[in-house]
Every structure is written in C-alpha cells, then in structure tokens.
Amino acid sequence: MNTPHRSDDELPRLIHLHAGQVIALPATAASGLRVLQGRVWLTRCGDPDDHFLDAGQQLHLRGDDQVVIEAERGPARCLLLSPADTTPQREALASGA
C-alpha cells in the first residue's frame, strides 16, 4: 500500500462500520484511533500484534501506519485523532489510568 501522506485537515474524522465491515486506512497524519461505539479489530503494518479495542479505548498511531480495522460483533464508530486530541493526559483518561 503506497498511499500519500495526508494532512490532518483532510482526515475523515468519524468512521462508521457495519458488523463485519473491514476498511483499510491509508497512512495519515492521525495520531490515534478512539472507539466510540462497539468493538474493533485493528492490525497495522510492522506491528506483529493484533489489537481489539472496545468503546472508550484508543490506540496511538504513527504517521506512517497503514491500518486495517474491522467491526466485531456489531456496528462500530471510531474517531481518528489529531495530535492535539492525544495529549498524555487524554491518553491516560481514555485508558482509565
């Protein structure tokens, strides 16, 4: 996947997924993905681990991450986060720390 890097202004901030729907996100300026509703499976190039995120959880993304997400067990809504959305304090709050 060789997708050009996009600016934060071009990010589709809100992602709606139907149950079982899979989408690939291009490398973007997003610094994170927060699950607002449902549960998602997430994998990314260069990361040997798969990630399962439930509503309220988020995962930090690098600018060059190429990400695939799938809605698990029902619909899901996710938010792509800008660097301003993922300050250390907000990361701690989102993870329940």
What does this structure look like?
The structure is a single chain. By secondary structure, this protein is mainly beta. 8% of the residues lie in helices and 44% in strands. The chain has one domain (8-95): Jelly Rolls (Sandwich), CATH 2.60.120.10. The N and C termini lie far apart (35 Å). Strand 3 (32-44) and strand 4 form a beta hairpin.
* CATH architectural group: Sandwich
**Biggest sheet features:** 6 strands, antiparallel
Mean pLDDT: 79
The CATH topology, please? Jelly Rolls
Count up the domains.
1
Strand content: 35-45%
Tell how many strands the DSSP assignment holds: 6
Keyword list:
mainly beta, six-stranded antiparallel beta sheet, 97 residues, 6 strands, Jelly Rolls, disordered N terminus
Describe the SSE topology.
Layout lengths: L13 E4 L4 E4 L6 E13 L6 E4 L3 E3 L6 E15 L6 H8 L2
Antiparallel strand pairs: 1-6, 2-6, 3-4, 3-5, 3-6
Question: What's the gist of this structure?
Answer:
The protein has 97 residues and is mostly beta strands.
